[in-house]
């Protein structure tokens, strides 16, 4: 009794045939060919980086534990890559901007804010939105049922 998948389950996946080095691009314009070639070059670079990283991981795993001691780390200090340092600096700058923006909005009255004080997504036109009689926060109709009191109990109430 045999089936289409075999007596012991499905066949193992076969290795797909290797892709052609370059596909036929003769029907494309020169600009389109350049774009596709640039994408293929980037893909090849990424694959090479990935292979290099995997080789490094395998090589590091093969090293004895004595090679990874802090004593040896002092002899060869790890220098972060310039790209990583640049990403970190841009992240710090973004956090700084967000902090400054938050400080600016702290001075505003809560009912002057043009967006919902709970979800921060819904924008209000003049005179729209509900104002909580407890905390004076303006909120939209979707968030009205989810306003919680400031006390320790988590009762959700609507304060219209």
TrEMBL record:
<dbReference type="GO" id="GO:0042391">
    <property type="term" value="P:regulation of membrane potential"/>
</dbReference>
<dbReference type="GO" id="GO:0050806">
    <property type="term" value="P:positive regulation of synaptic transmission"/>
</dbReference>
<dbReference type="InterPro" id="IPR054386">
    <property type="entry name" value="RIM_Znf"/>
</dbReference>
<feature type="compositionally biased region" description="Pro residues">
    <location>
        <begin position="9"/>
        <end position="20"/>
    </location>
</feature>
<feature type="domain" description="RabBD">
    <location>
        <begin position="22"/>
        <end position="109"/>
    </location>
</feature>
<protein>
    <submittedName>
        <fullName>Regulating synaptic membrane exocytosis protein 1</fullName>
    </submittedName>
</protein>
<dbReference type="GO" id="GO:0044325">
    <property type="term" value="F:transmembrane transporter binding"/>
</dbReference>
<feature type="region of interest" description="Disordered">
    <location>
        <begin position="1"/>
        <end position="26"/>
    </location>
</feature>
<dbReference type="GO" id="GO:0042734">
    <property type="term" value="C:presynaptic membrane"/>
</dbReference>
<dbReference type="InterPro" id="IPR010911">
    <property type="entry name" value="Rab_BD"/>
</dbReference>
<dbReference type="GO" id="GO:0048791">
    <property type="term" value="P:calcium ion-regulated exocytosis of neurotransmitter"/>
</dbReference>
<dbReference type="GO" id="GO:0048788">
    <property type="term" value="C:cytoskeleton of presynaptic active zone"/>
</dbReference>
<dbReference type="GO" id="GO:0031267">
    <property type="term" value="F:small GTPase binding"/>
</dbReference>
<dbReference type="GO" id="GO:0048167">
    <property type="term" value="P:regulation of synaptic plasticity"/>
</dbReference>
<dbReference type="GO" id="GO:0006886">
    <property type="term" value="P:intracellular protein transport"/>
</dbReference>
<keyword id="KW-0677">Repeat</keyword>
<dbReference type="InterPro" id="IPR013083">
    <property type="entry name" value="Znf_RING/FYVE/PHD"/>
</dbReference>
<dbReference type="GO" id="GO:2000300">
    <property type="term" value="P:regulation of synaptic vesicle exocytosis"/>
</dbReference>
<dbReference type="Pfam" id="PF22601">
    <property type="entry name" value="RIM2a_ZnF"/>
</dbReference>
<dbReference type="InterPro" id="IPR011011">
    <property type="entry name" value="Znf_FYVE_PHD"/>
</dbReference>
<dbReference type="InterPro" id="IPR039032">
    <property type="entry name" value="Rim-like"/>
</dbReference>
